[in-house]
Amino acid sequence: MRTTIRLADSLLLETKREAARCGMTLTAIIEESLRARLARTTAEPRTRVRLTTAGRGGLRPGIDLDDSASLLDVMDGVE
């Protein structure tokens, strides 16, 4: 896809020099830089969330968290 971007003259010159040094095109250098930036943005560590719980003693007897149908029955008051 073609697009137009505006770069500072000094940045464009430095990028062209780097492209020539590496045997790459200007487009390839820009694409590589954008991919690296996007990878850093999407790979940011997640913030841990601390959940406050209520009650004691764990699950009620007979509750199986792996059986969603029976869990829904208990939650709906059908036992």
Account of the 3D structure:
The structure is a single chain. The chain has 79 residues and is mainly α. The protein has a domain at 9-42. 49% of the residues lie in helices and 0% in strands. The chain is built from three helices and no strands. The protein is rod-shaped and about 75 Å long.
Main sheet overview: none
Indicate the low-confidence ranges by residue numbers. none
Number of helices: 3
Average pLDDT works out at 86
Helix fraction, binned, reads 40-55%
Strand content: under 5%
Outline: rod-shaped
Number of strands: 0
Query: What's the end-to-end separation, in Å?
Result: 61 Å
Computed over alpha carbons, the radius of gyration is 28 Å
Please describe the structure with a list of short key phrases separated by commas or semicolons:
mainly alpha; 79 residues; rod-shaped; 49% helix
Summarize the structure.
The protein has 79 residues and is mainly α.
Outline the fold blueprint.
Layout: H1 9-22, H2 26-42, H3 68-75
